[in-house]
Structure formats: structure tokens, C-alpha cells
Amino acid sequence: MLRVSFITRFLLVGVAAAIVGTACGGTGTGTAGASPSPVDIGSGALTGAGATFPAPFYQTAFYNYSQMYSQVTINYQPVGSGAGIQQFIKQTVDFGASDVPMAAADITSAGGPSTLTQVPTTLGVISVAYNLPAVSKLMLDGPAVANIFLGHITKWNDPALTALNPGVNLPSTSITVVHRSDGSGTTFHFTDYLSKISPEWKTKVGNAKSVSWPVGIGGSGNQAVAQAVTQTAGSIGYVELAYVVQTAMQQAYLKNANGKFVQASVAGATAAAASNTDVSPTNFSITNAPGDTAYPIAGFSWVILRTSYSDAAKGKAVVYLFKWLVTTGQAQGAALEYAPLPTAVANLALTNLKLVTAGGSPVLS
Prior knowledge:
Blueprint: H1 8-17, E1 44-50, H2 55-68, E2 72-78, H3 81-89, E3 95-98, H4 104-110, E4 116-130, E5 139-140, H5 142-150, H6 159-164, E6 176-180, H7 185-197, H8 199-204, E7 217-219, H9 222-231, E8 235-240, H10 241-246, E9 250-251, E10 253-255, E11 261-262, H11 266-273, E12 298-306, E13 308-309, H12 312-325, H13 343-353, E14 357-358, E15 361-362
Parallel strand pairs: 1-2, 1-3, 5-10, 6-7, 6-8, 13-14
Antiparallel strand pairs: 3-12, 4-8, 4-9, 4-12, 10-11, 14-15
Helix pairs in contact: 1-2, 3-4
């Protein structure tokens, strides 16, 4: 059965309120979608592992899919993008999940480019969350965020921060930086942004799923970072927006590329995504995008599938699950602060799903 795990305490509400969309046709209780009905959507117990960034969306969507199609169950383990890729390479899961498409070396380790396909599934935003109960509105720009995470700004009342927050009584307390300790696509998007706005960050730390952090304490997964920020007065960290909203954390306003201060939002992610009209597994960055409403730290999340599943029933189940997820199933993310895929990106997802065969035959035409 579906494993709700760490996110149970707030996702049960989301699951109960989630919109139960229709699937891609089949013999379950759902109605026909884009595909002819009836259609064999496959069956089996699917296992997946990887990114925590989309985990609230996946847990809700997978639960509702299995309620509509009881012949398909999904056990998703939110262990981080790096671990998800490794489990996919080792073939211990039916699909991997990562906020960053696989690099060339990982693709080679997994068997080569012809053996897998990477499918964009959702669009999310990374909030800069903080814990200063007396400060209801905190303004930050890119250089300030970079200098905090570089360890150059160590007090909340540093002149660089007071200049950004006129009239706000920032405390003299020390800043506790919280970052990911595991290989993380969330970290990739965050450090991608910092590398674009800070030459020092780009040179000294760089952009990757795992980096050598100059300062701070680490937590494994978005949930651990959220918990550390919530429990540590004077802290700051980067967390996917769903975790921030569901746990009522404070989040900063960030100055975007057009000089506007914006908070993380679905609309901000959508505006950022408009800057990249040719998304692919090698061209996916949308951080620090132009536009008055664009939020500067946004990114797509992906699943990684085999192009050949010997078990025909399971292969069909994988393909039809993700066909539903990137079309009708996008509605499942609305209440959890995930933006729907832009039309061109959803079309890319469907194109890549057509590469998958089950029992030697293509699943989609």
C-alpha cells in the first residue's frame, strides 16, 4: 500500500481535500481521459524513490490514483534526489525521482541513454524560510542570501540586512544557517540561483546536488530542514514551498531579477517557467528568471523510467500512472502549492513516455 511516512501529519488533510481527477481510462472506477476507454492500464505494486521536493504532491496524487485504480499501488520513498538516482541505477525501484535530470555519468551507470527516459512531472518553488517571530516581513536580495550562506553575514542586524529592511527592528542575534546534508535537487536549484547572483559563490562553492557548505547545520530531506528551522530561533534555510505552507513557517521576500520583492508562490513559479520555452533534460534551469512576478528560485521535478519493462502489466501501470500525473493529475498539486506544468513541458513528458515499452510492445502510440 502507499507509504505516507513523514508527511502524514499534514498530508491527511490534503488527501481528504484533494481533487480526485480522472485517470487515463481503464477498468477501475475512474472515467476516460485522453485515451480511448476501456484501456488496459496495467497492474502491480510499483516502487519509487527519490526527491523530497515533490513528495507532498506525489503522496497525495499516488494515493488518489490507487483509490481510483485499486489494481495499481505505489510505494514512494522520499529519500532525496541523489539516493533516488542511485536506487534507480541499482534497479531496486521501478522509477526514480529527482529535481535534476541525471548527469551523463549516472546515465552511463544506469545502462546508457537508450535504457531510460526522464519525464518532467511538476513545477515547484523553493522558499527561503526563517525563524524570527518578531519580524513579520523580511526582505532579502540575492547577494544577502549568498553572503548569509557563505558565512559573511552572521548577525540579523548586519548593515546589509538593515538596509534592505528599513523601519524593521532586526535583532542582534546570530544567524543559524540550515542546509541539506544529503544529495538534493532542492540544493541544486538553490545553488544554481546563488551561482547566478554571486561570483564568489560560483567560484568557491558552486552548483550541485551536494556541495561543501561554508557554514551551517545539515538536515536530510526538505522535511528535516523545515523541522530544524521551525525549532531553531534565529535560523534560516531553504525549503520547498509545500512544507512552508503546511507547517506555517515564515518565509522571506526575495528581490527578483526585475528588482521586485516577491514571495514563493505558484504564480511566481509559473512566471519563472515562462522564461524557458525549450525545456529538456539538458536545458531545465529557470532560476533568477526575468519578469516582475517571477520568483527567483523555481524548478521542475522529474521521474526516471526504464524504456523497457519485461513485466508487461507493471510497465503499463508505470506509463499510465505518469500519463495521468502529467495531465489530469496536475490538479492534485494545486492545494499543495505546486504549479501545473506548462503545455510545452507536459507535451515533452508525454513524448518521453512514448519511449517506454512493456513486455516488448510500446504502451502509448
